């Protein structure tokens, strides 16, 4: 089977806690358990190829429940709420324009159209509120905090990099603040809804803000001058790490040191020669242009992961697996990569690669008597065309 036969994925998406991966394809959807990502194969939660599920361009799962939201490319104005365990279509909502994005938590369902945002009560799917006349949002750029106060973040301007924060529980605007000079390309809450990560269309700087105050907490630079398209941002469950994936082969992991941790690191330096350097740097910064001063203050990535030759659209997540932080990257060409994030940082180890998609399990495994590669060669990237080194994902059909 060729790579193109495995591909044809219309969407790949992790759920709120990154314990499930949803895949949309021409014939329906597939759900995988990411908790099995370190094993030789990962288990399918569900798959459905009924006509209503065909050409799934949006697949959103509510944590590890049986509730999913499906939007089909054939009927992009219809949002389907589906219970996959009982195979029951709970309801369908039709809109005047195409559904560009859907976010849900245990209280609310938020539907993004290009010029408005609809808010529903999850338990009965009754319409609660509509935010009208939002800035034109053709990318469907929006996020909903998974827990806490159910906050929505969405662009406040088509050209300027500002963001609106809206409270879905009290149905009130909370704050508006500027996060970048140019238009937004990506934004993401941490699971508690207390921090918001943002990136602009330039893609060189990632920033983290407190919510709802809008105070800048962290600023990270993923490159000096190379402009990229940021595909995804994701916090780890404990908000210690933040990862970003893009249209390049490098996935960046940033460490969110607490202010007291940074103070502990800088205190000893003030009593040494490096303290003089810090003093001179601070003094010089007041005379430098703002752009140069910014280069001196931002942090670099704590760790990086290299995708093996994939230039397709992707999404990243940072679950904790067996007590250790890991980086998962799913791509629309039908691969799931699992990296181990070391406590010391640096380049992440690629520990597993899986095929995902409708035809992934049909691949021939090859000669069972063939010796397996040495376990000690952890730095070597497995051959994606070798079924022994790169087994397909086991799954059942729903």
TrEMBL record:
Signal sequence annotation: none
GO BP terms: namely: autophagy
Q: Superkingdom of this entry's organism?
A: Eukaryota
Q: One Pfam family name from the record?
A: PROPPIN
Which GO cellular component terms, listed alphabetically, does the Swiss-Prot or TrEMBL entry include? cytoplasm
Q: Residues annotated as region Disordered?
A: 361-398
Q: Does the keyword Zinc-finger apply?
A: no
- Give UniProt keywords alphabetically: Autophagy, Repeat, WD repeat
Keyword Repeat found? yes
- List the biased-composition ranges (Basic and acidic residues): 364-373
Which protein family is named in the record? Answer: Belongs to the WD repeat PROPPIN family.
Cross-referenced PANTHER family: WD-REPEAT PROTEIN INTERACTING WITH PHOSPHOINOSIDES WIPI -RELATED
The identity of this protein, by name, is: WD domain, G-beta repeat
Q: What is the lineage of its organism?
A: Eukaryota, Metazoa, Ecdysozoa, Nematoda, Chromadorea
């Amino acid at each position: 089977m060729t790579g193109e036969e495995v591909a044809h994925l219309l969407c790949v998406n992790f759920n709120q806690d990154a314990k499930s991966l949803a895949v949309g394809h021409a014939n329906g959807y597939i759900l995988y358990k990411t908790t099995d990502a370190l094993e030789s194969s990962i288990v399918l939660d569900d798959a459905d190829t009924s006509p209503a599920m065909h050409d799934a361009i949006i697949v959103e799962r509510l944590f590890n429940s049986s509730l999913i939201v499906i939007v089909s490319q054939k009927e992009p104005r219809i949002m389907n709420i589906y219970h996959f365990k009982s195979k029951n279509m709970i309801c369908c909502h039709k809109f005047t324009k195409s559904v560009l994005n859907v976010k849900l938590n245990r209280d609310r369902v938020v539907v993004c159209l290009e010029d408005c945002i609809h808010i529903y009560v999850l338990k009965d799917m009754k319409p609660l509120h509509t935010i009208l006349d939002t800035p034109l949002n053709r990318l469907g750029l929006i996020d909903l905090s998974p827990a806490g106060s159910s906050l929505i973040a969405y662009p406040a301007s088509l050209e300027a990099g500002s963001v609106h924060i809206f409270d879905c529980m009290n149905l009130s605007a909370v704050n508006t603040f500027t996060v970048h000079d140019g238009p937004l390309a990506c934004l993401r809450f941490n699971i508690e809804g207390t921090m918001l990560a943002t990136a602009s269309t330039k893609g060189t700087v990632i920033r983290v803000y407190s919510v709802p105050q809008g105070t800048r907490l962290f600023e990270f630079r993923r490159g000096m001058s190379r402009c990229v398209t940021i595909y995804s941002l994701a916090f780890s469950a404990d908000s210690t790490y933040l990862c970003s994936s893009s249209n390049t082969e490098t996935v960046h992991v940033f460490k969110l040191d607490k202010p007291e941790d940074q103070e502990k690191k800088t205190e000893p330096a003030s009593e040494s020669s490096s303290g003089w350097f810090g003093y001179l740097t601070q003094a010089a910064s007041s005379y430098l242009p703002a752009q140069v001063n910014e280069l001196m203050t931002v942090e670099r990535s704590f760790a990086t992961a290299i995708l093996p030759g994939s230039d397709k659209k992707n999404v990243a997540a940072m679950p904790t697996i067996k007590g250790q932080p890991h980086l998962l990257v799913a791509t629309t060409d039908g691969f799931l990569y699992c990296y181990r994030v070391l406590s010391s940082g640096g380049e992440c180890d690629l520990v597993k690669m899986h095929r995902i998609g409708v035809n992934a399990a049909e691949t021939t495994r090859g000669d069972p008597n063939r010796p397996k590669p040495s376990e000690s060669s952890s730095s070597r990237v497995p051959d994606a065309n070798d079924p022994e080194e790169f087994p397909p994902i086991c799954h059942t059909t729903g």
